[in-house]
Amino acid sequence: MTQIAVLGNGRVGGNLAKGLSRAGHEVTATGRAPGAAAAAVREARIVVNATPGEGSLDRLTALREELSGKILVDVSNATVDGPDGLPADLIYPGTSLAEQLQEALPDTRVVKTLNTMLFPVMTAPDTLAQAPTAFLSGEDPEAKRTVRELLADLGWREEWITDLGGIRTARATEAAILFVPHVIRSSGFAPFAISVVR
């Protein structure tokens, strides 16, 4: 059992908190209130960033001291929404939210994952008709091994997880969010994931 703080209690954060709790972890889910978030992070070994990406950098930088030495699992995408509320552009073109977080939080081990799918797939990958892919980006091998174990707890098979390398590779997976609005407009809001098929 691992103590995990999930920052963000919307659809993504709530879904992950439930999935991790079902897997036997001790999970604290918090909203955006700074005091509650700081207390939760302080007690956790692993922190999941499921806050809206446009404000994640400011929120998490304010928790620099509490996040020191922790693993930060970043599942957010920082986007500018279009008139229909769906992602239309990236806030950090040419870089990524994950890179910005790692630069701002040098004592925190940032791992990017689970940001290339609709939120129901994060905790139920085997419900799709074909095998999905969960990508990992991060500088710390031990942190990525720990996140692999968390993914396994959520139902991700080892062969469905692809380690892309350092945190810079997160700019590729974050850019994949731009597929999402087009797929939703074309096929509706049905669970899907971007996957590498061999």
Descriptive report:
- It is globular and about 45 Å long.
- It has a single domain (3-187), classed as NAD(P)-binding Rossmann-like Domain (Rossmann fold).
- The N and C termini lie far apart (34 Å).
- Helices cover 37% and strands 20% of the residues.
- The chain has a 7-stranded mixed beta sheet, with helices on both faces.
- It is built from 9 helices and 9 strands.
**What is the structural class?**
alpha/beta
Sequence of strands across the biggest β-sheet: 2-1-3-4-7-8-9
In terms of DSSP E residues, the strand content is 15-25%
Helix content: 25-40%
Unreliable runs: none
Taking the sheet with the most strands, its summary is: 7 strands, mixed
Overall pLDDT confidence = 95
Q: Which value, in Å, is the CA radius of gyration?
A: 15 Å
Provide tags for this entry:
two-stranded antiparallel ribbon; 198 residues; Rossmann fold; seven-stranded mixed sheet
Concise overview:
The protein has 198 residues and is an alpha/beta fold.
Topology:
Layout: E1 3-7, H1 11-22, E2 26-30, H2 34-43, E3 46-49, H3 53-61, H4 64-67, E4 71-74, E5 79-81, E6 87-90, H5 97-104, E7 109-112, H6 119-122, E8 134-138, H7 141-153, E9 161-165, H8 170-175, H9 180-187
Parallel strand pairs: 1-2, 1-3, 3-4, 4-7, 8-9
Antiparallel strand pairs: 5-6, 7-8
Helix pairs in contact: 3-5
